[in-house]
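Appendix B, example 12.
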Amino acid sequence: MLHFLSDKTCCTGCSACQAACPIDCISMITDEEGFWYPSSSEKCINCGRCAKVCPSLNPFTEGIRVNQKAYACISKDDVIWRRSASGGAFSEICLAWGDDNTIVVGAAWDGFKVHHVCIKGVRNIKSICKSKYIASNPENVFRQIKGYLEEGCKVIFCGVPCQVAGLKAFLIKDYSNLLTIDLICHGVGSPAVLRSVIRLLEEQFGGRISNYEFRAKRKNYEYIYLSAISIGNKTKYISKDPFMQLFLKQLCLRPSCGKHCNYRNRKRQGDLTIADFKGLTDVFPQLLGTKRNYSSIVTNNEKGELLIPILHERMQILPCDISDICKYNPLFERQTWFSKERDVFFKDYIVDNETAIKKWTTPALLFQKSIKQRLFDILPVFIRKQYLKIISH
């Protein structure tokens, strides 16, 4: 790692240092856990630019305030809702703020790796929609973004809070033609662990997996978080995905995603914060029985707030209190403390990755709905609501 980073808990892998290096002597090197860290070559001229843009050393605070406003929302466009992990907030924000010439930057699959890519046009963003729970490599996308901004192009950047912080630290100044969106982040999982899980799933289900998807939506969506794998021309929905077991137990997360994370707090890095809206029917009892999940949107500054009236045209938007976000999605404002098991898992993983995953997880299960569940799915919402009210008393 670079000299000013004391240990791995200080580095988020945002790559701002790599982008800032005037002689390109910094490379992002993957460690044995599957996470990348900056390393400089002998060409280093000790100019100090890498340290000046490191968000861990230089937090970006311009425009940040804490009197946010919060909303639950869902797209009125069925196509957008179905291609989204939650209610379609990311797509609709892009459509509300951008146009066919806007550059949208987000995380896209590249095989079973994830990279940040630049896409021209807000109607061409399908590949960067939906959740990816592994670390996304920004590579040299920060330099591209700066180039677009200085040319006068509108740019939308979406990433986890530390990536937004890295971009802003690299840019140094705020740009009126830049819109930033951060996420309520559980942490980023190891890309290497995911690839190991894919190999185990191929062994278990007897075929090469050509596609993998977190939080896949079936025809009738019931808030069940399933992974989907494609083998041949068939899609299999699985519960108890081994990767998600490790992810939710915080066993495969990057070291900086623990108690040293500087970005899980009310002083958000993005103009907007988006996530799945958790506790939906507790906050909005009138939605009891709904078949669809909603997004949460938190506006963090004036630029974000100005989008809400425009979003009303394309989304159902329900205002709520910011305390509802904090209560049901507490990682909005607090850090995660890893247990000692996180390091024990990775020690096992480094020795033998497949054996470690089998030891620390249970096998994946094909998802099958019971006849009762299938019948419940097709009931009209008003009947579902009455049924749920009865069984809750």
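The mean pLDDT is 91. Residues 8-53 form a domain with the Alpha-Beta Plaits fold (CATH 3.30.70.20).
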